[in-house]
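Page 37, continued from 36.
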């Protein structure tokens, strides 16, 4: 009996050791580089190559060779059953959620969608057609600068804000308006300032529309809440997230559970705690970049406006509204028109009606149409008058 217990104890120690090695591999993971992934798999293969023979020898020593073989066979059968069950579940998930485009971050669904729908990128690196230099004033050119909302994550090109604006403006007038998209995923106000200087000014726009979102004040994202992954290795978790729809679903529910149990904070609470006093270094840097955007546009005699999106995850009137109010104050101080979409988007029956899909709360076509309506109500007459004045000159 003692020998059997000792064998069980040694086996448990081996399992703990295996988990420990997997956790230690997370020291390789900060950059999620290919080398880090390679090191992880090398360590895992080495562990398996040493651990399984060692476990068999331990069992043979404390039990009997036949018992060790029986136990090993049982483990192999169990492992095979688990692999088969997971494979069937994976196929089911991929089929059931085949309509999912993106998920807000790099996951199996996002990678699949981008592979099936590779974006058309122009020579400047934006998801926009290549455009020529303006030869005359016949075309009124509008530049839309922004992040993934402007880029159009998870939606077709025609369903983006910029494309909806251009289509609406050019109905029946011979195409006198051109709306160019200068949006890139994961960018903030400090990046948009660089877009303005490096690309937008060179396109000779007649109007600049800056799309703004609450996380544009967040330059350093290292302080964001970090829920524990479903598996005890960030490298392995990242790999599974990119290659398995089933893992993405399970890990998403695990993250939600951690928040409800208080094991991990919510993104909204983190943003409130960090920025509510309006004295965070990132916020001040973003404010300075916004002021400079206004100044650069003014020096170049280009009218500018801001279109502000609220958080679409949950109630439109969220706790992060103070950030929108803060930017509105900056706009007022600089004499810049600021369009607040909170009331407009709140007319939707549910915030999820504005999402790309159930896993991605980026704006869908409906949200972009509602935003476009607000922009056109404010500026369409002004733009058409200017186009008409040019035609008579």
């Amino acid at each position: 009996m003692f020998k059997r217990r000792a064998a069980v104890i040694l086996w448990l120690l081996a399992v703990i050791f295996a988990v420990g090695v997997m956790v230690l591999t997370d020291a390789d993971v900060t950059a999620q580089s290919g080398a880090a992934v390679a090191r992880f798999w090398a360590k895992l293969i080495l562990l398996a190559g040493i651990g399984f023979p060692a476990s068999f020898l331990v069992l043979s020593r404390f039990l009997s060779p036949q018992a060790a073989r029986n136990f090993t066979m049982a483990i192999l059968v169990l492992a095979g059953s688990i692999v088969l069950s997971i494979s069937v579940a994976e196929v089911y998930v991929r089929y059931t959620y085949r309509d999912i485009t993106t998920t807000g971050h790099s996951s199996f669904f996002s990678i699949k969608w981008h592979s099936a729908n590779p974006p058309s990128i122009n020579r400047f690196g934006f998801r926009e057609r290549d455009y020529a230099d303006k030869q005359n004033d016949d075309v009124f050119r509008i530049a839309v600068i922004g992040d993934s909302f402007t880029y159009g994550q998870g939606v077709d090109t025609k369903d983006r804000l910029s494309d909806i604006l251009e289509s609406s403006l050019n109905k029946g007038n011979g195409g006198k308006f051109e709306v160019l998209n200068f949006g890139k995923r994961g960018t903030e106000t400090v990046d948009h300032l660089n877009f303005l200087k490096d690309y937008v000014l060179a396109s000779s726009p007649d109007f600049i529309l800056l799309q703004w979102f609450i996380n544009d004040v967040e330059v350093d994202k290292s302080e964001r809440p970090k829920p524990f992954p479903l598996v005890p290795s960030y490298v392995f978790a990242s790999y599974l997230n990119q290659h398995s729809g089933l893992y993405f679903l399970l890990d998403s529910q695990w993250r939600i559970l951690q928040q409800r149990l208080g094991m991990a904070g919510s993104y909204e609470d983190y943003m409130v705690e960090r920025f509510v006093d309006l004295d965070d270094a990132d916020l001040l840097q973003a404010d300075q970049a916004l002021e400079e955007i206004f100044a650069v546009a003014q020096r170049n005699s280009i009218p500018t406006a801001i279109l502000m999106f609220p958080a679409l995850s949950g109630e439109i009137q969220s706790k992060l509204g103070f950030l929108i109010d803060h930017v509105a104050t900056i706009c007022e101080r600089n004499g810049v028109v600021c369009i607040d979409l909170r009331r407009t988007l709140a007319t939707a029956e549910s915030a999820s009606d504005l999402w790309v899909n159930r896993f991605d709360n980026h704006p869908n076509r409906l949200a972009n149409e509602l935003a476009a309506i607000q922009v056109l109500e404010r500026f369409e007459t002004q733009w058409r008058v200017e186009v008409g004045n040019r035609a008579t000159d």
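Confidence is low (pLDDT under 50) at residues 27-31. Flag for discussion at group meeting. The first helix runs from residue 2 to 24.
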